[in-house]
């Protein structure tokens, strides 16, 4: 059974790195893994993979999980094949997907997660769980071979969701951007998650975790709330 944690962000408000996520991480890992393989591919742009690993590792060790980054392995496919669980960090979603394809990991990750290997991802790491990365907020600073991603759930997710426009901002709001997306792709579905919120996927169902409700965007500007704590069928969105 699939075990996937899709976190909107690595931080909530003014809290520290992943400080809000203890219970969310335990939910997916506690009964399934003692060691996790970290995939830092969304980062390593303005800072190194070593620096990213050093930021993430203490949090997981504090929770009782040993963590090692995939960049220490000569054969990344073998590392994923042997992993008890995979943690995919945030950063730039286009860079992440490009590096996953270059390493030959997209199909392998899909296979292993579908077979039950736990997956934890935040921001870009949540975006790539979707059928495509077309609802990321990131700038396409590289061009992946395709925008098709892991396709582990049947709908799109928009992380870091914030409603409305900041004062003085004259560009589109997130609501307007998602309405444009659905106007072009009327058969697709989008769930937005605010910072601190996560979707916990177990098999064919998902539960909204965190303080805030998730939002299900539909055609014509209709938005339904998915209440925090609610479990719903993936196919129902």
Summarize the model shown.
The protein is of the alpha/beta class. The chain is built from seven helices and twelve strands. One of its GO terms (cellular component) is cytoplasm.
Q: What is the CATH homology-level superfamily? A: Class I glutamine amidotransferase (GATase) domain
Write down the CATH topology.
Rossmann fold
Provide the domain count.
1
Distance between the termini: 19 Å
Helical residue percent band? 25-40%
Structural class: alpha/beta
Radius of gyration: 17 Å
Q: What order do the strands of the largest sheet run in, or round the barrel if closed? A: 3-2-4-5-1-8-9-12
Subcellular location: Cytoplasm
GO biological process, one term: proteolysis
Keywords: Cytoplasm, Dipeptidase, Hydrolase, Protease, Serine protease
Family: Belongs to the peptidase S51 family.
Descriptive report:
With 237 residues, this protein is α/β, with parallel strands linked by helices. The protein has a single domain, classed as Rossmann fold. It is 27% helix and 20% strand. It has seven helices and twelve strands. An eight-stranded mixed sheet has the order 3-2-4-5-1-8-9-12. The chain has a four-stranded mixed sheet with strand order 6-7-10-11. The two termini are 19 Å apart. The mean pLDDT is 96. InterPro entries: Class_I_gatase-like (IPR029062), Peptidase_S51 (IPR005320). Keywords: Cytoplasm, Dipeptidase, Hydrolase, Protease, Serine protease. It catalyses: Dipeptidase E catalyzes the hydrolysis of dipeptides Asp-|-Xaa. It does not act on peptides with N-terminal Glu, Asn or Gln, nor does it cleave isoaspartyl peptides.
């Amino acid at each position: 059974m699939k075990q996937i944690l899709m976190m909107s962000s690595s931080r909530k408000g003014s809290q520290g790195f992943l400080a809000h996520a203890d219970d969310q991480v335990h939910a997916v890992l506690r009964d399934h893994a003692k060691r996790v393989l970290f995939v830092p591919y969304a980062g390593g742009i303005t800072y190194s993979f070593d620096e990213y690993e050093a930021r993430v590792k203490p949090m997981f060790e504090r929770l009782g999980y040993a963590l090692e980054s995939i960049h220490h392995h000569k054969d990344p496919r073998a590392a994923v094949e042997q992993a008890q669980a995979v943690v995919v960090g945030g950063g730039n979603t286009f860079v992440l997907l490009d590096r996953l394809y270059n390493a030959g990991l997209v199909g392998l990750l899909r296979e292993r997660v579908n077979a039950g290997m736990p997956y934890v991802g935040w921001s870009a790491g949540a975006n790539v769980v979707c059928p495509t990365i077309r609802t990321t907020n990131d700038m396409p600073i590289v061009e992946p071979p395709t925008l098709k991603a892991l396709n582990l759930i049947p709908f799109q997710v928009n992380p870091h969701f914030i409603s409305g426009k900041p004062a003085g901002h004259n560009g589109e709001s997130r609501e307007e951007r998602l309405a444009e997306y659905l106007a072009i792709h009327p058969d697709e579905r989008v769930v937005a998650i605010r910072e601190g919120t996560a979707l916990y996927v177990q098999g064919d169902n998902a539960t909204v975790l965190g303080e805030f409700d998730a939002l299900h965007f539909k055609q014509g500007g209709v938005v339904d709330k998915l209440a925090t704590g609610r479990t719903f069928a993936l196919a129902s969105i």
